[in-house]
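Typical record was shown:
=====
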Amino acid sequence: MQDTVNVIERQPWLEPASDTVQRGLYHAVNAGGPLGRRISDFLNGSRLGHPLHPAVTDVPIGAWTVALALDGVQMLTKARRFLPGADAAVAIGLVGALFSAASGLADWQYSAGRARRIGLAHALLNTTATSLYATSFICRLRGKRKSGQLTGTLGFAAVCVGSFLGGDLSYRERMGMNHAPDQEPPDDFTPVLAERELAEGALKHVRAGDVTVVLARRGGRVYALAESCAHLGGPLSEGTLEGESIVCPWHGSRFALKDGHVLNGPSTFAQPCYETRLRDGLIEVRGRPHQ
């Protein structure tokens, strides 16, 4: 099956098509101003502390699995009492598919390279599945039961392939996962930089044991966070300071300097934050006891 995924992601038309769609999404979010940003953050799951897309995909997949099972039982037993349940499951799946598509696009708009191409193929397969189920629902309403069941079965096959691609995005490309470093910072205060080398309002990346850290000086205080953005690994030392926060240069995630919590998405994970102190003209860093 992985060979099939590799063939899909090498299709030459996926790159220009994904570029066009991604630019369209970017302009749509920006055109919405602050409201567009809040909607994007909601769809990314920034306020939940967890990506929204994996949670809402369970609704259409689960509903359409129930519909397939009830259709199967009905065809075997010829009992019509299973038909209303199957029809309702198809309808519930269609509603869930709309939320799943919106949250999926919100995640995908920040992807690049192979993940972007696989993501577009994933979206196209799921769009095909949704269209087939919409056709199935219309057929059922019109009394064309067999046509509705057939198109529903084809839709379920498309869902299965699309779900496999979704798994590839999650576990191979790490879409929606925490990209902050998993190394442990030093337990004891460790000198990382001479104090005079960090000016007010400046950012600088340093090493603290095995962890790469971004130092920020704001209002006379020195803050330390993990250098790699939790969203997709962007270098925070190349970002900007806005008030008491740091903004990732790649996709605009904004984190509080004092504790790393998410102020604006698309990140859904807080940024690891470390303790600092000034001693003998040196900036020292250590891990926080609760981390």
Remarks:
- The chain has two domains: 2-171, 190-286.
- The radius of gyration is 24 Å.
- The mean pLDDT is 89.
- The first helix runs from residue 2 to 9.
